[in-house]
Specification:
Blueprint (H helix, E strand, L loop, with lengths): L3 E3 L5 E3 L6 H9 L8 H14 L4 H6 L1 H7 L5 H5 L3 H8 L8 H21 L2 H6 L16 H12 L7 H10 L13 H10 L6
Antiparallel strand pairs: 1-2
Helix pairs in contact: 2-7, 2-10, 9-10
């Protein structure tokens, strides 16, 4: 959905925010607002990986369960997970029980540790891929920047980080402002993006 729709307060919002009640708060308070916190960035990369082949609604409904199961996505704690943790997670009905995605989250935590040691922070690395110019909002599912980020992450050993998954991450974490023109959140997000001091370490 690319047009705006009126929200409960009558103000226009991105059309997708009306698809299910859970989306409204996520749209208004999270999606597209710029994030420079390593834990939150890592969490979103993991959750986008778990979403692969599923709907974001499914993941959003289970997000608190994921946080409980994955030590609130603390990178160092997840990196220390072993075979017993994989077995535990495969029995956890509150999350998506997919061995490949579970193992990817643990692997990616270890890769994130390496990246942080090399770059200073996950945020500094990821924000280097911020596009200089954006396509019209919600018209593409991948961009040259998401392709480049996906390729570089894969080269570093990350998994479940394809270009479409990575672009969804970039949209959600504010590396692009993909709120529709006319959406009540677009100007607020743009103001926050303008104020954000891009991390360098």
């Amino acid at each position: 959905m690319s047009a705006t729709v009126p929200g409960p307060d009558g103000r226009p919002r991105c059309g997708w925010s009306a698809a299910t009640p859970e989306y409204l708060a996520y749209h208004d308070a999270e999606w597209g607002f710029p994030v420079d916190d390593d834990r939150r960035l890592f969490e979103k990369l993991c959750l986008e990986g778990f979403q692969s082949g599923l709907s974001w609604r499914t993941i959003l409904a289970k997000r608190e369960n994921f946080r409980a199961a994955f030590a609130n996505f603390d990178i160092d704690r997840v990196a220390a997970f072993g075979a017993a943790d994989v077995a535990r997670l495969l029995q956890d009905a509150g999350i998506v029980r997919h061995r490949g995605k579970i193992e990817a989250a643990i692997n990616n935590a270890r890769r994130a540790q390496e990246l942080i040691r090399a770059e200073g922070s996950l945020a500094a690395y990821l924000w280097r891929f911020e596009p200089k110019a954006s396509a019209a909002p919600q018209t593409v599912s991948a961009t040259p920047e998401s392709v480049a980020l996906s390729k570089d992450l894969k080269k570093r050993g990350w998994t479940f980080v394809g270009p479409t998954t990575v672009y969804a991450f970039m949209q959600a974490m504010g590396l692009v402002n993909d709120h529709i023109e006319g959406c009540v959140c677009r100007a607020e997000v743009e103001t926050m993006r303008a104020r954000l001091k891009r991390p360098t370490r």
